[in-house]
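Lecture 7, part B: from sequences to assemblies.

Below are the input chains for today's worked example.
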Amino acid sequence: MTMREPPDATESPRFTGPRTFARLPHTTDLDGVDAAVYGMPWDGSTSFRSGARFGPEAVRSMSGMLRTYNPVQRVQVFGALSTIDYGDAPTVPGYVEETLARIERFVSTLAEQRVVGVGVGGDHSVTLAELRALAKVHGRLGLVHLDSHTDLWDAYFGKPYSHGTMFRRAIEEGITDPARMIHAGMHGPLYAAADDDIPDELGVEMVPWIELATLAPEEFAERARRRTGTGPTFLTFDVDFVDVAFCPGTGTPEVGGPTSFQALGYLRALTGIDFVGYDVVEVAPQYDPAQITALFAANVAFEMLSLIALSRA
Amino acid sequence: MTMREPPDATESPRFTGPRTFARLPHTTDLDGVDAAVYGMPWDGSTSFRSGARFGPEAVRSMSGMLRTYNPVQRVQVFGALSTIDYGDAPTVPGYVEETLARIERFVSTLAEQRVVGVGVGGDHSVTLAELRALAKVHGRLGLVHLDSHTDLWDAYFGKPYSHGTMFRRAIEEGITDPARMIHAGMHGPLYAAADDDIPDELGVEMVPWIELATLAPEEFAERARRRTGTGPTFLTFDVDFVDVAFCPGTGTPEVGGPTSFQALGYLRALTGIDFVGYDVVEVAPQYDPAQITALFAANVAFEMLSLIALSRA
Amino acid sequence: MTMREPPDATESPRFTGPRTFARLPHTTDLDGVDAAVYGMPWDGSTSFRSGARFGPEAVRSMSGMLRTYNPVQRVQVFGALSTIDYGDAPTVPGYVEETLARIERFVSTLAEQRVVGVGVGGDHSVTLAELRALAKVHGRLGLVHLDSHTDLWDAYFGKPYSHGTMFRRAIEEGITDPARMIHAGMHGPLYAAADDDIPDELGVEMVPWIELATLAPEEFAERARRRTGTGPTFLTFDVDFVDVAFCPGTGTPEVGGPTSFQALGYLRALTGIDFVGYDVVEVAPQYDPAQITALFAANVAFEMLSLIALSRA
Amino acid sequence: MTMREPPDATESPRFTGPRTFARLPHTTDLDGVDAAVYGMPWDGSTSFRSGARFGPEAVRSMSGMLRTYNPVQRVQVFGALSTIDYGDAPTVPGYVEETLARIERFVSTLAEQRVVGVGVGGDHSVTLAELRALAKVHGRLGLVHLDSHTDLWDAYFGKPYSHGTMFRRAIEEGITDPARMIHAGMHGPLYAAADDDIPDELGVEMVPWIELATLAPEEFAERARRRTGTGPTFLTFDVDFVDVAFCPGTGTPEVGGPTSFQALGYLRALTGIDFVGYDVVEVAPQYDPAQITALFAANVAFEMLSLIALSRA
Amino acid sequence: MTMREPPDATESPRFTGPRTFARLPHTTDLDGVDAAVYGMPWDGSTSFRSGARFGPEAVRSMSGMLRTYNPVQRVQVFGALSTIDYGDAPTVPGYVEETLARIERFVSTLAEQRVVGVGVGGDHSVTLAELRALAKVHGRLGLVHLDSHTDLWDAYFGKPYSHGTMFRRAIEEGITDPARMIHAGMHGPLYAAADDDIPDELGVEMVPWIELATLAPEEFAERARRRTGTGPTFLTFDVDFVDVAFCPGTGTPEVGGPTSFQALGYLRALTGIDFVGYDVVEVAPQYDPAQITALFAANVAFEMLSLIALSRA
Amino acid sequence: MTMREPPDATESPRFTGPRTFARLPHTTDLDGVDAAVYGMPWDGSTSFRSGARFGPEAVRSMSGMLRTYNPVQRVQVFGALSTIDYGDAPTVPGYVEETLARIERFVSTLAEQRVVGVGVGGDHSVTLAELRALAKVHGRLGLVHLDSHTDLWDAYFGKPYSHGTMFRRAIEEGITDPARMIHAGMHGPLYAAADDDIPDELGVEMVPWIELATLAPEEFAERARRRTGTGPTFLTFDVDFVDVAFCPGTGTPEVGGPTSFQALGYLRALTGIDFVGYDVVEVAPQYDPAQITALFAANVAFEMLSLIALSRA
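Predicted structure of the full complex, as structure tokens:
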């Protein structure tokens, strides 16, 4: 069982070689692996700007900037946590339901072997597939959801699966437990006044950005811990959680959100929760001319890996 | 019955007002209308770069550069041909089959009222919807298809509807007649040697670019006329027909193709065919930083309107 | 009198159809209309980067992201406030004085019919035309001006009309009352030390960003209310008020300014003032590759519409 | 009298130092100077996309790629022809007439000292100012005009000065002689069928692109020489003459035009004409993300300098 | 010995997974391998625009568009020719000589095992390293060089290694035989008239673009075959050979060059030469916003692989 | 001795003329000059994204936005401080050691004549050359370093000179005094846990961003003053100090850093230190599509000039 880690950055520059996440080995051999980063190149369900099918490629590209140690969390990530790039889930352009089924099968292998996955989207609808795969193994899941939208709407254009509806589907399918779900960071106009009542109706907790902005990271983390309890939980991060100035490369951007410094603060505080899976989604590189969204998402994934490393330390 | 035409360009600059195609009136009132330009904002079926859902917006934006008279064809277009912007067909992100059904209904209204439509895509799968709508009214159709790909493949990832398969579907559905179909301009690598045999197997005519490049516009047009005969025919133009230098903003670009000057030459020569519908597809503005693809597509649509005007003159 | 509002977003995606502001009806019929959004596509008077003539198009494009309800202000906007897209004022490239005259005539129609307008620029010189039109109907106006520059300079290159001089012109013309004018957010280097004395000399109030940054939104709003009193007032927002990271797409950007979160906070606090007109200006999409400036400006216009809705509730 | 030329390219890389044209000395000292390149940063009169005020900066930037010898014309340019960067003419945003007056004064100094100027635009309206300055010194001028538009329209929006009207103004002002004017390369739709008759009505010669495309460079040059005769003549090159794929960075682009190879061929053939001034205009770098338009325009200016050098050799 | 080839494109879309060239296996195991594509991420020696260190990444990204069969050459490439992505050579930013040494060692492994390499640059200086590695195995080499520059200059800034000097170095080092070298496509201004004499002085053949443009592909190929004879030869393709409209993403672009259609024609004709190595260089994706240069370079590599396949068929 | 200052901005627009820094005279005549801005166009030593060789050009371009007076510091800059654009240091692509030697010679002239320099990079390795030049004149230097990285690593790829190692080299060469060095703003992952100990081992002070974020500007300035004491000191500002949203155009960007408002606050507080030289580095315009990084860097240079002006007032 070898430690899976990036090659020595003093051998060849970080801009060298086919791009895998953080220059990790690309393999599907899970033997001895602690964590696996994988992509979900799908953008068929986005309601505004498409392009997130190239999100995994873009994040891999800028993840070359990552190094091995997290000095804020004071934790060694690569080299301590055996980590691989597990490749991308297969998708089927134009067919959301088939795509979700194929992603679910792809993630199931990881889940069954208890390798912690960090998924990279892709539009947010893909999270439903991950939740299905993980719930089969871990049972009903809690959810910590950082986003500018709740994604709890009922349907778009008369159809059930979309990047704005999947958490309602998850509740309906019984794979997440509303009593253990917390959605934070919501901002931007709503479709209707009634939208504000949806979280209550479904029994989930919602912390709009206007309120979250008044909470210190540890205060938010405490609320998340209270909400999710000790059960298995999923952490999902939509890059439109942060202000569009920090993540322009995304499908349904909103203005007036958190800075990346604030966002990393909330993420880093989320220790002590039993996360069984993670993802960062909605990176659309066509709208990211300076690659800053991809760099941010790579760092979000790195913070997620840091949480895994901390939980094992 | 008023003449539907752009406002006088000496009143306000062409960059003024909400963007409709060529600054035409946006209306669904078809009374007295000769031709209608409409959009099909769908990119769920593309096999590589997405973004064509914003194709109609981009083409409308640059269509402001169009004027009213075609000096090469020596025909008055706007002012002679009562033309409207008919708006966009509804689509459903993630659901190609439902989307095709909705586009078909949208186009059917035009077809039934014998208003000649010029569709703007959108990925090429949308053409199947247009063919279905038109075949219901006009019967089995011939096809003139300018593209770098034949789009006659059988399936992608086990699924039938894609931007690379719809002309095989059209033949199977009996809405186009292979004996009256001509596909021209094919270039770029193929999936397999056997791909080269597909046109023969299906009974359609294929003129690869390496051969088309040796034909004068009139020679090509003569072949198209021979092939399509006197029956109702559809003209479809995928912007990846031209070299990617002329149309970078597209999903599955190929290098080494025609110049825009050559392409306009082929188009202009296609007089004398009974075209009952037209489209120009695969404009993906995310890859079109200088809007040159959109401008080209707007001109393609203008040439199609010129063909209509010529046929009525 | 029908309610003028966007089409149901569950019918067709928000990226469908010719782009009007927030997908509102484009009409010049003012019957029963409460508010009208209009464009002023002019960039002839900018002193650095041009391009704002395409500002209205860009804002319309990203305004598709808007929905109908403002959850922070807790007010229904569309559906409660009958709102239209009134189109664009005519302009004359190269002729600022003629352009201002044509914009004034265009806005006068709205003003005379007491439809509250929200203008979208265009470079900031256009505000002079709006003030002229509104003063004719409402009398001398107060002004709340959020910007990184005061735009109170005397002349550029020996000529009086420019995007940096129009508020001095407004005072000279007697259409704004300096005693009821407040300019806030100024940052960036000045032409000369004496520039700092201009506000005092003209009798207006100026709150530089270095000072505004220390005020809570409500504190600023209280100062604005004290200054403008109960008379008719105009609210003008130059997108270079915010830091260029949030609004790169503008002609004379400055660094070190407010975040968009701070800016929206100041805007939302401006209740209780008798605003008879609004505008958001200086959107230059050529410098806005990810459309974030346009999205921000669309939201500024939405917050202005929210203020109208609140004042009527 | 020192030879004015670029610094030795073996001393410091061509990307070094403040950008002047071809790294020439920036000076207004005309002593011993043969040729002067200057900018006209004005875009107030463009009828579609603005931005050409940054044309001179962009062309200077890419002119670093130029070297000193023209191997096709077999002529030494820099080092043989004492050449300077004369800086930019002053302009007044928003005031076309005042701007033309200031440019005229700026160019007059060169004209009076018989330094041959090569102007860089700026939108095409600036050429009127150059013609006025040169006609005062040289008398009535002939014109060779490469463009996709004739720029012979009468008025835009009721106003006389525009980038589409200045050659009609020049005829009216008696500074150009229609009998010695030739306009070549016209393509793209026209405002009206009657537009095609304008050249005849005004007595100038027009060679549309569809005809020019059939002429060898020398055939075109022979027609130009026949038309312009032996009198003083101006050569003006609008970059929208070439296909937009080669020059995307321009205000009113057209598709289906010449390649840059064809364009250089026509230019190089124009020997034996008594050109007393030159310009290359309509470079709008906002639409030129890879700087290819600027590079092309720099080469056009280099070919013009080559014509000067050839005429003196 | 398994056939190394891309995964079945009907399993998962071509935009799936970490990007290797044409989705080939990334491995350094050369057993049974016929051809290997590798990158040389170095841009330290470019004399104008840097960025080519990301050339290999960009080409890999767009090589996803490649398929397996070349219909113009009528040859099966992937599936017939066992091909791998061999990764990238190590480089040392700031140290050209050390970098060349490391690239040479990297390529030597391939050369020694008689795996035919297709290198992807990287600025053109890297070719010197490849020539050194290949000459050690194959002896003195011939050269077919398609480029807009001869790269035969003596020195830049007093230093010998640069992307403009390496073919003179190769001659001096005795690793290429001037009598078997042909350089074609040269265009753009030269540093001095004497530059035109360099090929003669060094004893190589030079075909400037102005002459090549008059040759049919087969005529050029015949000259290349005559020049290179039967000995081992290297084929190097600088993407600035084609007009900058087709390959904007490059460091020292020139205007007025060949189209991509012409370029592919010349390449395809080069059968019957004993090429022992190939490269395509100078892809700088920072100047390639629509990825068209990368797509072209991927196709150039595919044509090179096609030549290998043809030579083995 | 004339005052060297920008031309009157009321004569010609700020977008006029060859771009020098702030439109200052470009000269190497140092007579009576107080301060000189110069460029160091070198990017050969960057470890990730190249392009900073065009940093000086980009900063000059946006420095046109600067005016003459700093209203926050209440100090007249231009007009009070005789300032020039001193041009660019020569560099040698591919040769870092030779390049550093040439830059050192270039800066030495300024240092010897006691003209205070403000350098514009270029990758950060160039600062070593400036320190060498200044230490020869002023003796061992203190350092205030704002950056997201300490640049104290030992070597990259076995080579000593890089943009990540030069401050260790400076200590080794004895040209900076570790006891008077302070590095602030560090954020982003590290290569190894041990990296955190490097500052202590070398005897310098390091203030990571997570700590700096808790300090008011004056608190940080007080620490910097305590550290640097009364001796000659250099102030170096790497634009990746600020969050990548504010400075996307840089080679090794990091997320989660300061805003530009915070950064300017720290800079403005640094009064009372005997700075003998300044630089702002790592501007890579290829990743700066809206020129915001260049504008920020121009303002950083303006704040540095303001510190000089304050120290002389």
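Note for the exam: The beta strands of chain F are 35-40, 69-70, 75-76, 83-88, 116-121, 141-146, 176-186, 205-208, 233-238, 275-281. Keep this in mind when comparing with the next example.
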